[in-house]
Structure formats: C-alpha cells, structure tokens
Design a protein that fits this description.
267 residues; alpha/beta; D-Maltodextrin-Binding Protein, domain 2; five-stranded antiparallel sheet; two-stranded parallel sheet; 12 helices; binds 1,1-dimethyl-prolinium
Length: 267
C-alpha cells in the first residue's frame, strides 16, 4: 500500500473495546465486508479506547475507534462516524429491558416498573455527562431522578411500595449502561427495593440473566448488537421491549481526520 495512507498512519489498527461487546463482533464483520484484510481490531475496554482517543486528539494524530451513540464522547470531542455504505453496523436500533424468564410472575410489581421504564438519549446524556465530569454514578442517578419526577412517575405508575424486597440488576461498565442501570436502581430503591448491581462482562451479563443469578438488565442492544446473545438465551429470558430508541454504532474518528467512509480505510 501507499506509505502515506490512513491505514499506514494508524498501523492498520482499529481501537476496540471489550471482546464481549456486540460492537466488536460487528467490527469483525465490517472488516470482512469491506475487505480490510490487513486491518486488526485491538481489544481493551471502553476506558482504554477513550484513553487512546484522548491521547490522539491532544496530539492531533490520526486514530480510528469503535464508537456508539448515546455516548458523552460526542459532547466532549469533535468526532464523526465514518460512513458505512454497506450497512455492516446495522440500522439504528433500541436498548431493551430484559428480565429472567419467570421474573414477571415472581415480581409483577418490579416488572411493571421495568416495563414502564423509558427515556431518551437526551435524558441518558445528562446522567452520563454528570458521571463523566466526576459525580459518583449513584449520586448522578439520584439527582436526575429528583429533577425528573414527572417522567419517573410514568415508570412507577400503578406500582406499589415494597419493604426490602431483593432485586439484582446486571450491567456492563459502558457509560450508557452505568447511567441507565443506576437510574433504574434508584427508582426501585425509592419504592423500597433492596437493589444489588452486578458489574459483569457482556457475555456474563447475558448468561447470568439466563441463569437467573440476575433478575433483569436494561442494557440489551437489539436487534443487531446483542443478536447472538438473544438468540442463545431467548428461551430463558423475557424481552420487555425498548427503554431507549435510536442508538447508533460504527467506526469513529476525530473530525480533523481527512477520511469520511469505511471504504477510505483501504490503502
Ligand atoms: N456498546 C454499548 C455495547 C452495547 C452498549 C455498543 C459498547 C455492545 O457493543 O455490546
């Protein structure tokens, strides 16, 4: 290839996140779809990806990372998605609330709240940004819940107060999921639930939900991102439907980078 190509500038390396993320699987598919044979995806975590991005931006160096919306990175940095003319990352999708099969009978009251939980990318963005700026996740969630009584009221409508009933929520330490899971935990705690949050890898989160070691997750990106997990565990879980609509996934670069499309990654 040509020595000055974008690929050569970044060592033909895409900065990825944790291996269990649906985004990583979609990125492998993308590499095949676009025949980016000499490219590799470096796994890590959301924080190692952000650290690499931050470092590159400070030096105004080229970089390409796996990214998603909603995410505070688009507020903090000037970024763009590379165009995906082949549609490898799928269309816009939704984040669903999913419970362990049988939980709806075991605790219809909590299920009602989980089912009624629904917010927007803007709502989530406020909590994410507050956490990113250093507020403890639990505190950021509690503040949002306090400031949004009307919306929260639609989630708890028809639900009863309980006295110390246990509920376990699984989640992955992605900014979006830290925000949503802490908000739902706060709402359930305000109703009298004793909520345990379990931070897991993506595969463990789905397996734990299927086994019933966790009761619910609010972190299922469907239909594409977590398609394989849903397929594997569909008989062991109940999908309560979307809690946030209109997410996006793809390859992300700083705006100063010259290329505009995944096609441009070819030398
Ligand atoms: N994400 C954030 C997850 C879902 C939420 C896009 C990194 C994933 O790829 O599985």
């Amino acid at each position: 290839g040509n020595a000055g190509s974008f690929g050569n500038q970044v060592d033909h390396k895409i900065i990825g996140i944790d291996p269990g993320a649906g985004l990583m699987k979609l990125t492998d598919t993308t590499i095949k779809d676009y025949k980016l044979n000499n490219w590799t995806v470096q796994s890590g975590s959301e924080s190692t990806m952000i650290a690499a991005l931050d470092k590159a931006i400070k030096k105004k160096e080229p970089i390409v990372v796996t990214g998603w919306t909603p995410h505070w990175m688009f507020q903090k940095y000037d970024l763009k998605y590379l165009k995906d003319p082949k549609g490898s990352y799928g269309a816009s999708e939704n984040i669903h609330t999913v419970v362990h099969k049988g939980f709806e009978k075991e605790d219809p009251n909590a299920t009602k709240v989980l089912d009624q939980f629904s917010w927007t990318a803007d709502d989530m963005g406020k909590v994410m940004l507050s956490i990113q700026k250093g507020t403890d996740a639990k505190k950021a969630a509690a503040e949002w819940v306090k400031d949004n009584e009307d919306k929260v009221g639609t989630w708890t409508k028809g639900a009863d107060k309980v006295s110390g009933k246990n509920i376990k929520l699984g989640y992955v330490a992605w900014a979006s999921e830290i925000a949503s899971t802490n908000v739902v935990a706060t709402v359930l705690e305000n109703l009298g639930y004793n909520v345990t949050l379990e931070q897991l890898g993506a595969g463990q989160m789905w397996a734990g939900l299927a086994k019933g070691s966790d009761d619910a997750i609010v972190a299922a990106w469907l239909p594409s991102t977590h398609a394989d997990y849903m397929k594997q565990f569909k008989n062991k879980v109940t999908d309560l439907g979307p809690n946030l609509k209109g997410t996006k996934l793809g390859l992300v670069v700083p705006s100063y980078v010259k290329i505009n499309s995944i096609d441009d990654l070819k030398d």
